[in-house]
Design goal:
mainly alpha; 2 strands
């Protein structure tokens, strides 16, 4: 550029001789005559180094924008979740769970629906794998002996006197023979994508609709004749005791709870002889919809914690089994919405990514709980024990129990009275108020 300007200046000086006005006019026209442009060399612009204060100011501005955009994404998640909560979800006759029930578990019952055949159907779904015939090469079959019988700890019996003393799982649902027809429960009311992996930790780390929920669902059916609220308390206590992602809203524990409660509701329908060939699909939906709503109320009680996970400015991590398993798990990946925005991703890109879609799906349970309760004119209540668990009052208790540590006398006493609710405790002379928990499920 500088060379071209110098050529133009030199030419002007040569042309501007006294008494040669005509030549000057001619040469000026010649300078602007069309033709190939001369080569131009452009020197790169040198950036002025930023001062430390300028850099700090820019970083603050970027962080503030990322934080503000994170809130925009949160609002988007809520908006999309509300819309999704309104959409009906139905289990079709071509689904694996419908066909497995109609063709394998319930043919005798459906031929003559009544409480007696219903009890037999519940027992069939609740069958267990015989350890002597288990396939040792398959993790789920070979582990069935550990799950076939669980003696309820004394502390659980104290807190949940209506829960079963022995909580054996319905392990036959995990058999290779059953999984050939139904590798996972394909109910749309559950969250995440199908996960067909069958390794030891495929359910926990892979999330989605996975193999473990076959056992959770069938176990709910198996123990359907127990107190409904006590079973819901027990389902939640199991997830909180093991702590495999429930604290950070991972998909696997959410689906465990939905499938267990849906199984429990279906078991009660069978025991009452309510299901028949014509209403099998609607009854399945009825159970899974209520279970989805119940889990939604659990998440709604912790909505602030869910918002904190979504908007976290640091990578979200949590313990496995309260640190009894020495690893920190990043359930939502190695970054966050905020960090990705800070790294240059646009709000639109964040809204479209898979993690945000998973958040929408989980958040939709919160709104679906409201939809279900309005449609059914029925409020889902929580026992004092569940309320205390959701408030985190049992975290230290569960942490000690899972690590095999003895509870102190005052810890036992506090745990007992927290489960009984307001009005319970030494100050009331040992009197307790009964758990007030109506609306605990179909078939009550």
């Amino acid at each position: 550029m500088e060379r071209a300007q110098q050529q133009f200046h030199d030419h002007q000086e040569e042309a501007a001789q006294p008494g040669d006005a005509v030549a000057l006019e001619h040469d000026q026209r010649a300078v602007f005559r069309g033709g190939a442009a001369p080569d131009v060399e452009v020197a790169p612009q040198r950036e002025q180094p930023q001062s430390a204060s300028d850099q700090a100011f820019a970083a603050e501005g970027n962080a503030a924008k990322a934080a503000a955009d994170t809130q925009k994404v949160l609002q988007y998640i809520r908006q999309q979740a509300k819309q999704r909560a309104q959409a009906p979800m139905n289990i079709g006759k071509d689904s694996m769970i419908y066909k497995r029930l109609a063709e394998h578990y319930l043919p005798d019952y459906l031929a003559n629906p009544n409480p007696t055949t219903g009890k037999a159907a519940v027992e069939r779904i609740g069958e267990q794998i015989d350890p002597a015939t288990a396939d040792k090469s398959d993790y789920w079959e070979s582990s069935s002996s550990e799950w076939n019988a669980h003696e309820a700890p004394a502390s659980v019996q104290l807190l949940l006197p209506d829960a079963p003393l022995k909580m054996g799982a319905a392990t036959k649902a995990l058999s290779l023979a059953n999984r050939a027809h139904m590798p996972y429960i394909d109910a749309p009311q559950m969250v995440g994508n199908p996960n067909t992996e069958t390794g030891e930790n495929a359910d926990v780390y892979g999330g989605g609709k996975n193999v473990s929920q076959l056992m959770h669902w069938a176990t709910g059916v198996k123990h359907a004749d127990n107190n409904p609220q006590a079973m819901r308390d027990l389902f939640l206590a199991y997830e909180m005791y093991h702590l495999e992602g429930w604290d950070k809203f991972a998909q696997d524990p959410i689906n465990d709870l939905i499938s267990e409660d849906a199984g429990r509701i279906m078991g009660r329908q069978l025991l009452a002889g309510e299901i028949n060939q014509e209403n099998l699909g609607p009854k399945l939906d009825e159970g899974f919809n209520e279970a989805r709503a119940w889990v939604g109320t659990l998440i709604k009680a912790r909505q602030g914690e869910l918002d904190a996970v979504i908007t976290s400015q640091t990578v979200v991590e949590s313990d496995m089994w309260y640190g009894a398993i020495p690893e920190m798990v990043r359930w939502w990946g190695d970054s966050t919405i905020y960090l990705d925005l800070l790294d240059g991703m646009s709000v639109e890109e964040i809204q479209a990514d898979a993690r945000t879609q998973h958040f929408i799906e989980i958040y939709s349970l919160v709104y679906y709980a409201d939809v279900w309760q309005k449609q059914n004119q029925k409020k889902i209540e929580h026992s004092y024990f569940t309320q205390a668990m959701l408030a985190g009052k049992y975290n230290k208790v569960f942490a000690k129990l899972v690590k095999g540590q003895e509870l102190l006398s005052n810890e036992k006493l506090k745990a007992y009275f927290d489960a009984k609710g307001p009005g319970a405790g030494p100050s009331s002379g040992g009197r307790t108020r009964q758990n007030q928990a109506g609306g605990a499920g179909s078939g009550e």
